[in-house]
User: Fold these one by one.
Assistant:
Number 1:
Amino acid sequence: MQKLGVHEKLELHELLTFKTTCLTKAQTMIPLVSDTNLKNILQQDVNGGTQDIQQLKNLLV
Amino acid sequence: MNSIVQNMTGMGGMTDQVIASDLLISAKSGIKSYAIALTESTSSEVRNVLCDQLSKAVNLHEQIFNYMKNNGYYNAYDPEQQIQMDIQNADKALSMSKF
C-alpha cells in the first residue's frame, strides 16, 4: 500500500474499529432476532461488513 | 453480556425493535464516519474504497429505515407519536436497569 497521511490513517483506524464492533454485534444479534426480514438485513450486513473490513485492512497494512 | 442476553430474550417481541433501532443508529453513525474519512483521504485508492463502502452504508440505512417504517417502529411523519414511543422505550430501558 502506498503511503498514508497520519490524519488519514487515524480515520481508517476509526472506521476499522467501528466496522469490527458492528460485525461482532450483528453476528451476536442474529440468533436473537425472530423476524425473517430483519434477520436477512442483519445477514446482509454481516456479509458486507466482512468484505468492508478486509478492504480497510488492506489499506492499512 | 450474559445478563444482557437474558434480559433481551425475556423481552419477547421487543427484541426485534431494539435490534432494528441499534442497526439504524449504527448505519447513521457509519455514514457520518465515512463522510469524514473521505474528506481526509489523499489517494484515489482510499477514496474509491470509502466511496464504495459509503454507498453500501446508505443502502443499509434505506433498508433498515423501510423495515422499521413498515413495522410501525419508526413513525417519521408524526413526530409527536414517535416521541411518545421513544419515551415508552426509554421507560422500558430504565425499568430494566438495576439502578
Number 2:
Amino acid sequence: MEILVFVTPALALIALFVAWPIVTAVRFSVYDWKGFGDLTDFVGLENYVEVLGDEVFRSAVGHNMMIVVGSILLQLPLGVAIALLLNRRMRGQGLLRTIIFVPYVLAEVIAAVVWLQLLQPQYGFIDAFTAQIGLTPPEQGWLGTPEYALWIVLLVLTWKYLGLAVLLFLAGMQGVSEELHEAAQLDGASWWQTQWRITIPLLGPTMRTWAFLSMIGSIQCFDMIWVLTQGGPADATATMATYLIDEGTKRHNYGIAGAASVILFVIAFAMALAYQVLILRRDTKEDTV
Amino acid sequence: MSRKTQALAALCAGLMIAATGCGGSGDSGGDDNTITWWHNSNNDPGKGYYEQVAKDFEKANPGVKVKVEAFAHEDMLTKLDAAFQSGDPEQIPDVYMERGGGELADHVEAGLTKDLSEDAADEIDMIGGSVAGWQVEDKTYALPFSIGVVGFWYNKELFAKAGITAAPTTLEDFYDAVDKLKAAKIQPVSVGAKDAWPAAHYYYWTAVRECSEDVLTSAVKSLDFSDPCFEKAGDDLVDIVAHKPFNNGFLSTGAQEGPTSASGLLATGKVAMELAGHWEPGVMQGITEDKKGLGDKTGWFAFPQIEGGQGDPGAQMGGGDAWAVSEGAPDASVDFVKYLLSTDVQTGFAENGMGLPTNPDATGALTDPALADLIKVRDSAPYVQLYFDTAFGQAVGGAMNDAIVNVFAGKGTGTDIVTATQEAADKEK
C-alpha cells in the first residue's frame, strides 16, 4: 500500500510528461502534418525515409557522434589529470576547485552567450587577442567558418563540462582507501606509480558512469549550439536537436520532425543500452560477486 | 494529517496545477460580444494607440468589448501556432495578424481563417493590388494594414568619404561603390547571414530583377521553378558573394540584435550599407545609445538593376502584415477589422510611425522622412513581390533560405538553390 502511494504520483508524472509525448511524436511521425487541423494525411514510414535520406540529418548525426567521442577524448584525460592534481594537498586548492567548477554551474545558455561575445568576429576578445599576437583570425570569424565551427563548439563544451568530470573523479578518488596508498608507499612505489596502478584503476566505475552521462548529454546537445551558431554556418554544426527545431518549429514539417525525434530517441536508447550491456555491466557484476 | 498524506496531497496539488497550467489564458473568444485581438505593437506609442483604437470602437459599437493582447513579435507567432494547433476556438484569437502567402494558405486549408471577400469588398478595392499576397484562390482572407519594401539603407557620410557621388542604380555601379568603399578602408555591406532571412533577401531580389511578373506569380501558385530566370538569379547571387562586399564574419552575424548585428554595424558607422526593410530606421534607433540611429546620415536606394533581367525595373520586393478574422469569431470582428483599415485609424498608425499604411488617404500622414520617401517608392511600383519564404510557405521557404545561406558560405551554385527549393516544393504538391 505504501509503495502504491509513493509510486503513483511519480508514475502519473512519467506518463504525462514522458510516455505521452513519446506516443504523440510517434503518431505525428506517420502523418504529413503542418501543425494544425486534423491528422488526416497518413504517409506511413515516408517521413522516416525522408529524414534518413536527408544529407543534413545524416551530417547532424555525424556531428553528434563527433561531440560524443570528442567530449570523452578531451575531458577524460584532462579531467583525470586535474583531479589528480587537486587531490593533493596544496595552497589555493579550494580556489582552484571553484574555478574549475564554476563553468559547470553556469546555465548553458548564459555560458553560450558569454562565449558568443568573446568569439564575435572582428570585435570580440578572441579575435582581438589573435590579432594582437600577430596572427590573422579567420576571415569569417571562428564560428562563421564551417571548417572550424564544430571544433570551437566542442572546445566550449569541454570548458563547460570539464568541471563535472573533475568533481566526479575527485569524489571517486576520495573513495579509494588511504590504506592502499600507504601500503604501496611502504613497498617503495613512487607517487606516480601509486596513481597509475591504484587510483586510476579504482576510478574505473566512476569514469564509466561519467562517460555514460557525457554521452547522453552529447547526443541531446542543443542549447549551446543554438546560441552559438543555430546549427550554421551552412549546417556545419547542425545536431539532431537543431534539425528537429528547424523542421518542426521553423518549417512546420511536424511529421518530419516527429520522425527525426523518434530516430533520435532510438539512437540514444540503443547507445545507452549497448553501453549498459557492454561496459556498465562490469561494474554491477563486481558488486554482486 | 500524517506526514505521508500531507506529502501526497502536496504532490497531487502540484499535479493539478501542472495539468491546468497549460491551458492558461483560455478565456479568449467564445462570448458573442467580446473580440479578442492579438497584435505585436507591444511598445509605446503603438501599444497605447491600439488601446485607444479598441476603446473608440467599443464606444461606437455599444455592447461590444475588445480584449486587446499585445505581444512581442516572436512570442505572438509562437502563441498563434500553439493556439491553432490546439484547434480550440477558446484559445484562438478572433482578430490576429497574417503574413500572407503559403502560411495563410495553410491556415485557410485547415479552415481557421474567415473569407473576407464580400464583407470587406470596399476595403479590398481601396487597398488595391497589394492584397494579392493575402488571397487564396481569388478569395481574400486578410486585409494588409502595413506593407513595406526591402532596399539598401546606407550611410551618406561614409559614401561621401569613399567618393561615391550617386547611389548605385545598376549592379555594376554597386560593385564600383563596393570597390571604392574598400579602397577607403570601409567595410561596404553588412548582412546577418546567421539568421538566414537577411541573406535570403538578396536572392529574392535578384529573382525579382531576373524574372518577369508572370513567372513569379505563376511560380507562387504552381511551385514550379523550372524557368531559367530562377537559376540565373542564383548565379547573380554567386557573383555578388564573389565580389566580397560583406562584413567580416557575416556568416555568424545576427540580423538586428545589438551593436555587432548587421543593423548594429550600420547604425554605428562600421559598415556603409545594409539590405533591409522599412523597419531598419526603427531598429537602428533602438540599437544606438542616443536613440537616433543613423539620423540625418540615413539614405536609401532600391536594389540595383541587373542587365538583361526580365523584371519590371520599378518592381519592388517586400512584405507586410494583415488583419485576419478567425473562423467562428463574433460577427463584430469583421467590422473591427474594417475599422482598423479606416482612414482615421490608419492615419494615427502613420503618425505614430508604426509602419507604412495601406489606406491611400493615410499615406500623407507619415512624419518620418525616411518612411515618407519609402512609401512613394512602394506606391509607384507596378507590383510588390512578397518575400519568397512567406509566399511559398515555411517548408519551401525554409529549404530555399538554407540553400541561399550555403551560397553565402561559398558552398553552392544557382542550380543548387533551384534544386533544393524544387525538392521541398514537390513534397508540398
